[in-house]
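Async update (no meeting this week)

Hi team, since we skipped the sync, here's where things stand on the single-chain job. The sequence we agreed to prioritize is pasted below, unchanged from the tracker. I ran it this morning and attached the output directly underneath so nobody has to dig for it. Comments welcome in thread, and please keep replies under the output.
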Amino acid sequence: MGRAWNTRFEEAEPVRPFRWTKGEKSFAGWYYAVTVGDHVGYESWLERDRLILLDRDPEVVGIGSQPFWLHWHDGQRSRRHAPDYFVRLGDGRGRVIDVRAGDRMDERTAQAFAATRLACDAVGWEFQHVGTPEPVLMANVRWLARYRRDRSGRPPDVAARLLEVFSEPLPLWAGAERVGDRLQVLPVLFHLLWSGRLVTDLESGLLGTESLVSAGRGTR
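Output:
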């Protein structure tokens, strides 16, 4: 671990493949993360949701999935664990993330997470165990993720006009109508909400026509 502390695990290939078998409860796949401009693997819908949240997090500049095997001996037998994600933050810090819902935690998993936390502490990385996101927030961010790619933010004159119109808080629908044809305007609006250049309350209720939108500072 001491020799690996500065390895760029956010760029490492996954140490195990992502497979989906018919009848399995989990569902593996690949998500295109605009943060890294590439696909990042996940092994469950819960991991996919966390990946979407990481992709929108302004602190995150790199994401790697299943980045390494951690080996240790628990006093009785050899153990190993592959964390779900290694994240690089903008200030250079490393963060290791394991995703597991609270109702699926068992003693063996808790031991693996505890060993991972100790290893991270030893090399100066952060460790996080994260569970199920708040459902309203996650539903809203999933929707906005459809518009995460830069092409959704074009044409730039529409984006500029939206930022001007929403310099003061307005309902989403009313503000979009001030800019032009909603079929052209709404994808740009949603892209700006994804990036944080426009902001709204994503936690209290589902995004809708009356959601108050205003200009933000931008996250991406």
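Quick observations from my side:
The radius of gyration is 20 Å.
The first helix runs from residue 45 to 56.
Reply here if anything looks off.
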